[in-house]
Write a structure and sequence with these properties.
Layout (H helix, E strand, L loop, with lengths): L1 E5 L3 H12 L3 E5 L3 H8 L10 H11 L2 E4 L2 H6 L3 E4 L14 H13 L4 E5 L7 H10 L6 E5 L9 H6 L4 E4 L3 H11 L9 E4 L1 H32 L3 H9 L20 H14 L5 H13 L2 H10 L8 E5 L14 H11 L3 E5 L4 H8 L5 E3 L3 H4 L5 E4 L11 H7 L4 E4 L6 H7 L2 E3 L8
Length: 439
């Protein structure tokens, strides 16, 4: 098939490269000329395992090309995927400005029947708005399809190439057949292509992400209660997760979720409900719990040293991305923790394997904040180590070297990556989430 993907961000670039990998001719369109030129040179704007090789291989084969011309993309494709950003508006709703601008461009350059696919995460009713925007500018026939993405950052290529399921919302049999044909190579192990009505497909993405966010926030609340009553959340998590009705996924407590999906999608779903006269009490509470959870480690630090005794202290931070295997720092808990430490007059030495540049862009130059070349440099002469992201490279460090680097052997572990028995044997004062303090 001839496919155009509009937007070369996280979703668009992964989708375009993966569609090209199965033999389609794909044009990726972006308004950012510098970004397009960089992509033509093989420079990938995001860190995602496997993506650079995928883009390079398909660009060299001629199946994947990049342009700033939406007209070129529309006129030369039978399918057009809209994969531009839907940033959060001030009221929590999804901002559809970019989506509808692309829709109007499609209408302007339409030269025959097209299948237009909403790949961006958009609220219920967006397909109707896209349809109206296109129809106002063309007499050609077209279909509008909802095809939400379910990609985990850090595993996006595998998720796209081997999806658990593909969700497709259509209003015509023709659109359904085209989408089944497109995705057939990705579901050869018989994982389902779920074809449904458009509003149901639009709702599925928000409902799924809010459900996962709910599990995270619920476990964080349980972890906080475990600390109060003297329970160990690791034991509780296993006791819960081995129930086949619950399962083990998304039951790890920590310092809150971040990224481009959960925070934005939960709030957008709450806003959608309000727009229709409903209140989603559980979803609203999920976001409140997550906001508070990002401060849990700050409270532990203040309790350990004294709320007014952080000034002049130095803290080493391991991990800036909101999760491992990505350079995404949007809504990352490390942002909250570092902001609070700097406000208290502390110094911060930070390291992340991939997210330093992204974090610098987000937080800017700040007095007292130093970015380091490796994780051990980050704790050189520091008062304590704070773990914010559970990168594999942090899981089995040289504890002797950590003790030698730190002024005092104190660790605040926001991801529970260290064993409490090991911490006791190694002589650390160790704070984690939902588990007893080791002293």
């Amino acid at each position: 098939m001839n496919i155009t993907v509009v937007g070369t961000g996280y979703v668009g670039l992964v989708a375009g490269a993966c569609f090209a990998e199965t033999g389609n001719d794909v044009i990726c369109v972006d308004v950012n000329a510098k970004k397009v030129e960089a992509l033509r040179r093989g420079e990938i704007p995001i860190y995602e395992p496997g993506l650079e090789d995928l883009v390079s291989r398909n660009a060299q084969s001629g199946r994947l090309t990049f342009t700033t011309s939406l007209q070129e993309g529309v006129e030369n494709s039978e399918m057009i995927f809209i994969a531009v950003g839907t940033p959060q508006d001030e009221d929590g709703s999804a901002d559809l400005t970019h989506v509808l601008a692309v829709a109007r461009g499609i209408g302007q350059f339409m030269n025959g029947h097209k299948v237009v696919v909403d790949k961006s995460t958009v609220p219920v009713g967006t397909a109707n708005k896209v349809r109206e925007a296109i129809a106002a500018l063309t007499k050609h026939s077209f279909d509008v399809v909802s095809n939400p993405e379910f990609l985990k950052e850090g595993a996006a290529v595998d998720d796209f190439m081997k999806p658990d399921r593909v969700v497709v919302g259509v209003a015509s049999e023709h659109a359904g057949q085209v989408m089944r044909q497109l995705y057939a190579p990705f579901v050869r192990t018989n994982n389902p292509i779920l074809v449904m009505d458009v509003p149901s497909a639009e709702m599925t993405k928000y409902a799924a992400n809010t459900m996962l966010a709910t599990r995270v926030s619920f476990m964080n609340e349980i972890a906080n209660l475990c600390e109060i009553v003297g329970a160990d959340v690791d034991s509780v998590r296993i006791g819960m997760g081995t129930d086949s009705r619950i399962g083990m996924s998304f039951l790890f407590p920590g310092i809150g979720y971040g990224g481009s999906c959960f925070p934005k999608d939960v709030q957008a779903l709450v806003r959608t409900a309000k727009d229709h006269g409903r209140e989603l009490q559980i979803a609203a509470s999920v976001e409140d719990v997550n906001h508070n959870q990002k401060m849990v480690m700050v409270h532990k630090i203040r309790s350990h040293y004294g709320a007014d005794k952080l000034k002049g202290r130095t803290f080493g931070i391991w991990g800036l991305a909101f999760k491992p295997k990505t350079d995404d720092t949007r809504e990352a808990p490390a942002l909250t923790i570092i902001e609070e430490l700097l406000k208290a007059g502390a110094n911060v030495r930070a390291f992340d394997p991939e997210a330093v540049a992204s974090f610098k862009e987000r937080i800017g130059e700040r007095a007292g904040l130093t970015f380091c070349e490796n994780n051990y440099d980050a704790i050189d002469s520091a008062d304590a180590l704070i773990v914010c992201t559970e990168w594999n490279a942090f899981r089995q460090p040289n504890f002797k070297r950590i003790r030698e680097k730190l002024k005092v052997p104190v660790i605040f572990d926001g991801r529970n990556i260290f064993n409490m028995g090991d911490m006791k044997r190694e002589g650390f004062t160790y704070y984690s989430i939902g588990r007893p303090v080791v002293k």
